[in-house]
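<context>
A single protein, sequence plus fold
<entry> Chain with its tokenised backbone below
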Amino acid sequence: MHVAVQSIGPISSGNGHYDIHIVTPQSVSVSFGGQNDGSNANAQTLLQQLLIISPSLGSPLPLGFGITAHAYSRQALITWTEKNWTVQVSGPPRTPISLLKPAAEAIASQLHRVQLPHTTMGVLTWAHKHHGQNALDLSWQSGSTVYWVNEPYGHAIAVPIDMASSMHILNAP
């Protein structure tokens, strides 16, 4: 799938970090960026900080497409893995799993038709915030660099996932 671009906004960079802001014709705002962390270990440590750790075993939660996630009611968390990616759908404490499940199912459906970038480690997080504000972030490691794509409102799950899945390493001529 291709993501149409209406405009590319401010590009910021510095200290090995860059960020590009993109707006699609459907007014979906997405950011793409990367940061060289100096070593593979530093990049992996940065990604590990994004993981939500659960102190207990979750309950099985079928999402379709052969995916059974783990649901953690106390933490308002649904999580599963896709190859080297950890997928997390979360909300504030006491958010019902039933409120998070549709987003988890939409992500599972999207991931069924695309392939996320090959990586040593990746984290896809959809976070439900108060007042219906949501955010979707995909972060992954390629060597010592961590890349990310995010949509700060979480309404267009397909756009950032499609952007990330379209990114491949190009061999230099």
Observations:
- Residues 97-113 form the longest helix (17 residues).
